[in-house]
Amino acid sequence: MVISGSVKYEVLTRGRTLQFTSNPGTTFILPRGTVDEVRWGAPTHRIAVAIHPSLLMNAMEETSRERRVELIEHWNLTDRHIMAVLLAMTADLDEGSPAGRLYGESLGNALAVYLLRRYAARRYVPGTYKGGLPGYRLNRVLDYIGDNLANELSLAQLAGIAGMSPHYFANLFRQSTGSPPHQFVLLRRIDRAKQILRDPRRSVIEAAVDSGFHNPSHFARVFRTIVGITPKEFRSEMRLGDRLEHPVPK
Questions:
Q1: 69 contact partners, CB below 8 Å, separation of at least 6
Q2: Integer distance in angstroms from the first to the last C-alpha of the chain?
Q3: Which of 4, 7, 13, 89 has the most CB atoms at less than 10 Å from its CB?
Q4: CATH assignment of the domain containing 196
Q5: Would you say residue 45 lies in a domain?
């Protein structure tokens, strides 16, 4: 996908020569095995994304009988949905993935489902789900999240705990909790960090690591975004509150 640069380009593929003009958002969708040569008339800034076939397959429902997914070739496509997802992926990678692997996987799954729905040779329409996760499956997933907040969590892991595909799981989990999996886990990690910061014997770094943030600067940035103040400021406010509630006798 072209990020910047409005230039003419030429595509040589399958014995053909195609000519186009790119603009920010111009996107190529190339099926596996495409052989091509692209000649750009001037510099551009582009994002290149390789999608493993298993990502597309795993995005399908458990009831699907398809075993092979083929995308339709496009050399001059503009699609705002694809652009939004790819820019979100790029921003997450540039920032060091502060929310962890789960957010990136959620974006990848969303892209896979969208490509299946819009650009597969045989169109795939995901089902609409109502009612959320069954109670026993939801509790199993919530217990797993609570026991593993300090560890790297993935969408595939959580979907596996629930015994369903990532797309199916993400939809039902959001209905049950009101939040997508990555956001739910992020908020639980911040809640745990708050609990640790209330303990004067624990350090800010311990609060970060024990709640699943292995980069202190990412932890501070995410904490401030969600809570409104830095971890150190939160700790100071807690200590001040304790002193006001329990003053030292003179």
A1: 53, 56, 57, 60, 116, 120, 124
A2: 69
A3: 89
A4: 1.10.10.60
A5: yes
Domain housing 90:
2-127
Instruction: Say yes or no to pLDDT of 217 above 90.
Output: no
Residues 195 and 115 in one domain: no
Count of domains forming the chain: 2
Last residue in a domain, options 127, 156, 175? 127
Joined together, the tokens standing for residue 52 give: 């493993």
pLDDT tens across 57-87, in order?
877 665 455 567 889 999 999 999 999 999 9
Instruction: Examine the domain organization and report whether 200 and 121 are in the same domain.
Output: no
Listed range (54-63, 154-163, 202-211, 224-233) with the worst mean pLDDT: 54-63
How buried is residue 123: exposed, middle or buried, by Cβ count under 10 Å (0-12/13-18/19+)? exposed
| pLDDT score, position 244 | 52
Read off the pTM: 0.78
